[in-house]
Structures are given as structure tokens and as C-alpha cells.
Design brief:
This protein starts with a helix and ends in a 7-residue tail after the last helix. Helix 6 packs parallel to helix 7. The chain contains 7 helices and no strands. 57% of the residues lie in helices and 0% in strands. 35% of the residues are buried. The radius of gyration is 16 Å and the shape is globular.
Length: 161
């Protein structure tokens, strides 16, 4: 199950690695032009949302304290903290999506047929757990990857893909 979404997410994580290769530690708290989010918030948001996706498939949150800081609807006002380093956030994000992909690959149709319970998507075509997991592995990740790429370009660097 989710074969296409898993492949897309794997590609996006390769693109993520290319973007992050040129985005140094000292840029984590610099807001991006246009979207206005600092990379620290984008990285934390993607990581916690990847973990939240795991909860739809029977998993649990590794970083529950991050939900108010980085979860849906959170402010992007993130204060520096020793645990919020570039390398730690990259590792946590990669782990979140590796686990989500693994869980999605093992999911059965009956596991993902029910409603997701995400108020943000009430009244939208995103109705089931399966829809939500697909969105998290593809569209949501790509949207925020684009913001990170914008932060990289703000530093005067050229395109990478």
C-alpha cells in the first residue's frame, strides 16, 4: 500500500538533503523571504507532522513536546534551544519519514479506510486516514520543502533541481 507515495517521499528526501547541504546552522532562525518561516520551524514542523502521521497507523510521537511548538496551527516563533540544532532536526525529520514510510508500506486497506479526524480537512476531499497519509508523504512535504529551498535561495545560492 502507498507504493507511489513512498517513492515520491523518497525522492523528496533526496531533494531535502540537497537543500540542507547548503543551509548552515546560522541560518536556522532567519525568516525566509515571501513565506516568512525560519528553517528551524519548517524542519520541526515536518518532523512532528511525520510523527503525527505515524499515529494514524498505530505509532506514537517521539517528540510530543514539539506539538505546540511545531504542530499544525503553531506559531513560528521558535526560541533557540540546545536540542534544536540543524543536524538533530535533520536526523529527527529523516527518522520520522523513514518510520512513516515503513508503517505505510505495512498498512492494510482496513487500517486506512476510516476517517482521519483532522479538523483542518473537514469538508475537503481529504476524508480518510489513507488520504491523510498520502498527503503527508507527498503534498505537505513538498510544500514545506519548497519553503526550505526558498531559504536556501535567499542566501544567494542557485537552483539545485
Amino acid at each position: 500500500m502507498f507504493e507511489n507515495e513512498i517513492a515520491i517521499n523518497q525522492l523528496q528526501l533526496k531533494q531535502f538533503a540537497a537543500v540542507m547541504a547548503d543551509l548552515p546552522e546560522d541560518s536556522l532562525f532567519t525568516r525566509g523571504n515571501g513565506h516568512g518561516h525560519p528553517p528551524v520551524w519548517i524542519l520541526g514542523h515536518l518532523a512532528i507532522v511525520g510523527e503525527m502521521g505515524q499515529t494514524f497507523l498505530g505509532g506514537s510521537l517521539t517528540h510530543p513536546r514539539w506539538v505546540p511548538l511545531f504542530g499544525p496551527g503553531s506559531s513560528d516563533e521558535v526560541k533557540p534551544h540546545a536540542s534544536l540544532t540543524r543536524d538533530a532536526l535533520i536526523t529527527d525529520l529523516n527518522q520520522a519519514y523513514e518510520t512513516l514510510r515503513s508503517m505505510a508500506a505495512e498498512a492494510k486497506p482496513e487500517d486506512v479506510a476510516g476517517p482521519h479526524g483532522i479538523a483542518l480537512f473537514d469538508g475537503s476531499p481529504i476524508q480518510t486516514v489513507g488520504h491523510a497519509v498520502s498527503l503527508l508523504l507527498t503534498n505537505h512535504f513538498a510544500f514545506h520543502l519548497s519553503q526550505l529551498s526558498g531559504c536556501r535561495r535567499d542566501r544567494g545560492l542557485g537552483h539545485i533541481f
